[in-house]
Amino acid sequence: MSKECPKGRHGKKSNHDMINLMDNVDQNDDLRYNRRAFIKSAVGASMALGLSTVPFSVRAMIGIAEPDHDRVEIIDLARLPEGEAFTFNYPTENDPALLVHTVKGELVAYNSACTHLMCPVFYQKEKDILLCPCHKGYFDVSNGQPVAGPPQRELPLIEIEVENGKVYAVGRQYRHG
Amino acid sequence: MGKKVCWGVIIFTIAINVVMLQWTIEAYLGREYEQTLLYSGVGIVMAFVAFLAYGHLRKIEYSSEKKS
Ligand code: FES
């Protein structure tokens, strides 16, 4: 796009003030940056924003269609005394999880990837708390909520059931509490 | 519906859609899929509304141009 304005064809050659008044008039800019162009971009922006949510809803529909999590046996309760924790994978092999038998006798399970930067969290039975050693993130063992350090979100909760002395994982809640 | 209203509607849809995009992503990351669908639905409807408002605005502008 040339800066040359077709109507200013004498401008460059002349020093006359009344002709050089044209210098600040750029027809191209006038055509390009006006009210209609602005509203066009605004509508474009609005539509782009609205339609950019589509991929998420498509993925969400796929997520809804997926079957619920399986019921998976974790461990014999007898092998997990109070104050101990056991690592397993749920719902897939790539989701490490931690089953904790707290010193108070509760059974809880969470995905053990820290919600800060995915380091594995551990159970500290002295303080009855979940600790992420990477940046000293602490999670409340009774509900998985972050209590100190950089993590902002809770650990995904794994629903468990105890039947005939065996602990089963039956589901997962991403946001809870 | 006048020109001013169309402008208002378009600016309003931008504001809504910014929020909807943010909420959709947040719901998606939290695996709240129903919410994701809801927010994304609102976003799509708003995109449509913006388009209709724009079409309407054009119609007003170009027809009033002919008269003058
Ligand atoms: S990764 Fe857990 S606190 Fe940073």
Account of the 3D structure:
- The complex is a heterodimer of chains A (177) and B (68).
- With 177 residues, chain A is of the alpha+beta class.
- Helices cover 22% and strands 29% of the residues of chain A.
- Chain A is built from four helices and ten strands.
- Chain A has helices at residues 17-20, 27-32, 35-51, 54-65, and strands at 72-76, 84-89, 96-101, 107-111, 122-124, 129-132, 137-140, 146-148, 157-163, 166-173.
- In chain A, a hairpin with a 5-residue loop joins strand 3 (96-101) and strand 4 (107-111).
- The mean pLDDT of chain A is 85.
- Chain B has two helices and no strands.
- In chain B, helix 1 (3-29) packs antiparallel against helix 2.
- Chain B is rod-shaped, with a radius of gyration of 16 Å.
- Chain B starts with a helix and ends with a helix.
- At the A-B interface, helix 3 and helix 4 of A face helix 1 and helix 2 of B.
- Bound molecules: FE2/S2 (inorganic) cluster.
- FE2/S2 (inorganic) cluster (FES) binds next to loops of chain A.
Fill in the keyword field for this structure.
heterodimer; A: 177 residues; Rieske Iron-sulfur Protein; B: 68 residues; mainly alpha; 2 helices
Distance between the terminal alpha carbons of chain B, to the nearest Å?
A: 19 Å
- Overall structural domain count of chain B: 1
Structural class of chain B: mainly alpha
- Total helices of chain A: the number is 4
Mean pLDDT of chain A: 85
Bound compounds: FE2/S2 (inorganic) cluster
Radius of gyration of chain B: 16 Å
Helix-residue proportion of chain A: 10-25%
Apparent shape of chain A:
elongated
Strand line-up across the major sheet of chain A: 5-6-7-8
Estimate what percentage of residues of chain B fall within beta strands: under 5%
Gyration radius of chain A (Cα, Å) is 31 Å
Written as H for each helix and E for each strand, in order along the chain, the element string of chain B is HH
The CATH class assignment of the domain at 72-173 in chain A is Mainly Beta
CATH-wise, what's the superfamily of the domain at 72-173 in chain A? Rieske [2Fe-2S] iron-sulphur domain
- Approximate strand percentage of chain A: 25-35%
SSE order of chain A, one letter for each helix or strand: HHHHEEEEEEEEEE
Number of E-state strands of chain B: 0
E-strand count of chain A: 10
User: Percentage of helical residues of chain B?
Assistant: over 70%
